[in-house]
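Pipeline run #58 for the internal structure catalog. This entry was flagged by the ingest filter as a single-chain record with no existing model, so it goes straight to prediction. Upstream metadata was stripped on purpose; only the residue string is passed forward. Reviewer on rotation: M.T. Logging verbosity set to normal.
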Amino acid sequence: VQEARDGYAHLQQIVQAPDFRLELPPEIRAQVGDLSRFKEPLLNVANSSFNWFQNIVTGIPSAIINVFITIFSIYFFLREAKNIGCFIQDFFPLPEGRYRQIFKRFDDLCHGVIVGQVVVGLIQGILAWLAFYFLGVPNAFLWGFLTVIVSVIPMFGAALVWGPIAIYLLGAGYMTGEYLPAIILLIYGICVI
């Protein structure tokens, strides 16, 4: 939350500076005009994003309570597993060994999916954080943490974080003439993350 607040304050400071101008290529500037008039909408988007992120972080205690209730419930389900198993066997009669196979397979599947998601998310977050840190991306830890969270989304997961950051670095490179960080992040994101 502190990094998000600092990032918002930094963006607000840049946009509210009297000499603020968004430099665009001449061809685009001729079509769109001066983008300095978008100061207020840009601040509104930044403020909305900050509020959204703050709501997520403040919702963490509720999520923790839900996890506690889930674990508490699972404890009693596991404690009464034999009785539940007997009920299921009475309700759906199958050969004795078949239930054991089904439950073993279900247990292996659940364990693999949960552990796999958590481990892959942590690895992707750490890899992304390292890239952001060494490339000088502001609030690298925050973006690495978000990478851990969104990595559970199939196919696009981590790319939802490092992709826009690569675009940001490309835009910053256009102004400074240094495109190498954007290229490095793009290649690292595709090949490593």
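catalog note: The chain is about 80% helix and 0% strand.
catalog note: The chain has a mean pLDDT of 80.
status: ready for reviewer M.T.
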